[in-house]
Amino acid sequence: MLYEQIARNKRKTFLVMFLFAVIFALVGVGLGQLLWDKPLPGILTALVVALVYSFLVFQDPVNVVMSMNHGQELREEDNPQLFHIVEDMAMVGQIPMPKVYLIPDQSPNAFATGLSPDKSAVAVTQGLLDMMDREELEGVLGHEISHIRNYDIRLSMVALVLVSAISFISQFAQRWIWYGFGGGDRDDDDRDSGGALGMIIGVIGVVFVLILGPLAAALAQMALSRNREYLADAGSVELTRNPQGLISALTKIENSQPMKAANSASASLYIEDPIRRPSLSHLFDTHPPTSERIKRLQEM
């Protein structure tokens, strides 16, 4: 059951990342139609924007994310038990020991970040340390180590870059339209030859760049996050051989208060949504329902 779930979630992740690529390409096509009446220049422009964002974010992702969430790096003498649990989980997961950070918030939560297992970090809140016993901490940290071992941290950073790039392109297109630019190199003959079909394609391109592209990218990012949470839950059980620890920890986290200063851009990294935003549809959730996660853990 465990390995079947892992394989199923990996297939779903591939599909979501493929969807990301399609959305990004379509946004580029829409940008090209808006600015040049040609898709290729738009695709190339979108690619350049993504490369620039990648360069900026991937310089030091751990420091960037920890700064956004007020994380403070810990030494072993600061909390020997926490360090030993992280070290044990990393050893079982066969990855290098990640850096350990503390977030001074009384709501129990945790996340992992970085680009690869040898350049990674885990962060826990003060509330998590105060509320969890050792078995529950092992379940949570086994979950985070699984994110690192599965390279979920890299997927999350790639998704963040793509969503940010698409958002930038959308905002740029809005300003372009607002100031009355667009299609300056087209003459009347070109416009006439396109006819109604060209106008329809142009309108579709504009709508996708401004509305559908950013929305679809955000939904894909949320779907990716939900899918990887299930996989990391299964990975935690694989590392600890004890689903009850994570079940108990998730129950406590679900019944606690949201974090006071959580960064919304990195909310999908946490083991549970730190903001606890009300949602009419699970499409807009950054995490799967805790009840469903517990149900799957109980079936392992």
Task: Write up what this structure looks like.
The chain has 300 residues and is of the alpha+beta class. Helix content is 66%, strand content 7%. It is built from 10 helices and 4 strands; from the N terminus they run H-H-H-E-H-E-E-E-H-H-H-H-H-H. Strands 1-2-4-3 form a 4-stranded mixed sheet, sandwiched between helices. A hairpin with a 2-residue loop joins strand 3 (110-116) and strand 4. Helix 1 (2-35) packs parallel to helix 7, helix 2 (39-57) packs across helix 7 (152-178) and helix 6 (134-149) packs across helix 9 (243-254). The chain is elongated and about 65 Å long.
Global outline: elongated
Task: Characterize the quaternary organization of these chains.
Answer: single chain
- Spatial arrangement of strands, main beta sheet: 1-2-4-3
Q: Provide mean pLDDT, rounded.
A: 83
**Proportion of residues in β-strands:** 5-15%
Question: Short description, anyone?
Answer:
With 300 residues, this protein is of the alpha+beta class. It has helices spanning 2-35, 39-57, 61-68, 80-93, 126-131, 134-149, 152-178, 188-240, 243-254, 290-298; strands spanning 72-73, 99-103, 110-116, 119-125.
